[in-house]
Amino acid sequence: MATEPNLRDLFRGDTPTMRPIDTAAVIRRSKTRRLPAQVGIGGAFALGIGGLGVAGLQGLGGAQSTSDSAVSEQAPAEPDGGAKGATEATLGGDAAGIKRAPAERINLCGGPLAEVAPSATGLVLTLEFPDAPVGTAPVLGTATLTNTGTETVVGYTGPTPAVTLSQAGIVLWHSNGPTILSIQDVSLAPGESLEFAASFTPVVCATEDDTAEAFRADLPPVAAGEYTVTAAADVSIDGVAELVTGPGTTVRIG
Questions:
Q1: Taking the domain 103-253, which CATH number applies?
Q2: How far separated are the first and last CA of the chain, in Å rounded?
């Protein structure tokens, strides 16, 4: 143990044996000792941020999954519609909040022609098509939306209704593929009508076409004979998508 004189000697600037203090070396050694701790803290901080990011992404993914599950529970997939039908089934609805398939999905390839009750609004859709030869060329015609009720109906709908070709109550073809992103205003007093362009293709589709992104390009043509065409449209009235249909029309192919 140093004696008191020795301690005094250590702090005396004129002591011959005193080693001068290298301040730069002291600072350098101090920084070297602190570096591992700083790296450790920095790593933990980065991991914390990374964990937060992962949790955030997992939370978003979980919310999406929950949403998808809710869709499945509210609108079960139709027997021939596949997962695509289950998702699209949430696009329509009625005043009670009951989910249903949109107009272009109420009739699926190879399934029975849907029976739809008349719209309470009094709106009715009718079709007019000329006879056509056997083949795969689209047949052009018109669809007419008529207000058969007693009150004016105001709302909007798509640019053209969905058309279904059937025979003996079985769906052979229905409107499909990309649709035009536009709307048609509807304002019909009792007895008034609104006309749309309409078309159908006289071919036979199958279940696989409804579960694909688009119908196959080489669908076989229907045989010569008489067929039924029907129309359906979603008409938005006061924020509610009202499904509007009408009686079938007979068309001759061949």
A1: 2.60.40.2360
A2: 120
Cα–Cα distance, 166 to 169 (Å, whole number): 6
Q: What pLDDT, in 10s, does the model give residues 80-111?
A: 433 333 333 333 444 444 478 999 999 999 99
Q: How far apart are CA 233 and CA 133, in angstroms?
A: 27
Tracing tokens 């010569």 back to the chain, one arrives at 224
Entry field: residues in the chain: 254
DSSP-derived secondary structure for 138-159? -EEEEEEEEE-SSS-EEEEE-S
Q: How many Cβ atoms are within 10 Å of 146's Cβ, its own excluded?
A: 19
pLDDT in tens, 72-86: 333 333 434 333 333
Compute the distance between CA of residue 209 and CA of residue 207 in angstroms, rounded to an integer. 5
Q: Which residue has the tokens 């080693």?
A: 19
The DSSP letter of residue 177 is S
Sheet holding 193-200, edge to edge: 123-128, 139-147, 193-200
CA distance 163 to 129: 11
188 membership: H or E segment, kind and range: strand 184-188
Residue 182 carries which side chain, given as an amino acid letter? S
For residues 105-114, one letter each, b for 16 or more C-beta atoms within 10 angstroms of the residue's C-beta and e for the rest, the string is: bbbbbebebb
Alpha-carbon distance of 149 to 194, in angstroms, equals: 14
DSSP, collapsed to helix, strand or coil, labels residue 202 as coil
pTM of the predicted protein model:
0.63
What is the domain partition of the chain in residue ranges? 1-74, 103-253
